[in-house]
């Protein structure tokens, strides 16, 4: 079988975790990527469902708190500008 080379850049931690994961199936990373590509060709797309990541409640609460803090800070700045520059 003829092969072609393709270089990709990976986060070293992700690469190590992927190698460990696929080793359980007796596959190296190159073989696992080939399995992925074959499955993608058979399905004519990703071999899994793509969806929006779901954020945890703690992350959503932190985002809301950050938004509230930004609104408060914005209002403080506007109030300070009104005091400094009366119309």
Give the count of helical stretches: 3
Distance between the termini: 80 Å
Form type: elongated
Question: Largest sheet at a glance?
Answer: none
As a percent range, the share of strand residues is under 5%
Order of helices and strands: HHH
- Using DSSP, what is the number of strands? 0
Number of domains: 2
Low-confidence stretches: none
Structural class determined from secondary elements: mainly alpha
Share of residues in helices: 55-70%
Rg calculated over all Cα atoms: 25 Å
Mean pLDDT: 88
Q: How would you describe this structure to a colleague?
A:
This protein has 3 helices and no strands. The longest helix has 28 residues, at 57-84. The mean pLDDT is 88. It has helices at residues 12-23, 29-43, 57-84. It is mainly alpha-helical and 87 residues long. It folds into 2 domains: 1-51; 52-87. It is elongated and about 75 Å long.
